[in-house]
Amino acid sequence: DYGHRVRLATHANYKEFILTAGLEFFPLGGDPKVLAEYMVKNKGFLPSGPSEIPVQRKQMKEIIFSLLPACKDPDPDTGIAFKVDAIIANPPAYGHTHVAEALKVPIHIFFTMPWT
Predict the structure, then answer these.
(1) Across the chain, which distance is largest between two alpha carbons, in Å?
(2) pLDDT tens, 95-115?
(3) Cα separation, 96 vs 99, whole angstroms
(4) Ranges for the Glycosyltransferase family 28 N-terminal domain (predicted)?
(5) CB under 8 Å to 67, separation ≥6 — which residues?
(6) Cα(24)–Cα(22) distance, rounded to whole angstroms?
(7) How far, in Å, CA of 39 to CA of 46, rounded?
(8) Is the entire prediction scored with pTM above 0.90?
(9) Burial of 26 (0-12, 13-18, 19+ CB in 10 A)
(10) Comparing 40-44, 75-79, 87-91, which segment has the lowest mean pLDDT?
(11) Which one, of 37, 87, 82, 89, lies nearest residue 59 by Cα?
(12) What is the C-alpha separation between 53 and 109, in angstroms, rounded?
């Protein structure tokens, strides 16, 4: 309504929820179920054992390699071109600052849900 085009980039299992809200969706890599299981099992970012490292490394690579396309690629469903004007990112996310720097756009980092 105010001349802004909002694209929300997140995992594919949230696609219908986002589209139903009237926002544009772009899929990020990684599997949120695998990421959540890792966080529950390890109580943080450090792995509890060496077997956890390759799994988490693959998840992070998929997410990071999908960030730049999320900010510049056309809509995957409609093919409509997209150019990011600003990035809003979640603090624990990875790679957002590098993408903002590469694209020379402002970045705003904050939690998108209330904590009180």
Answers:
(1) 50
(2) 999 999 999 999 999 887 777
(3) 5
(4) 2-116
(5) 9, 28, 95, 96, 99
(6) 7
(7) 9
(8) no
(9) buried
(10) 40-44
(11) 37
(12) 27
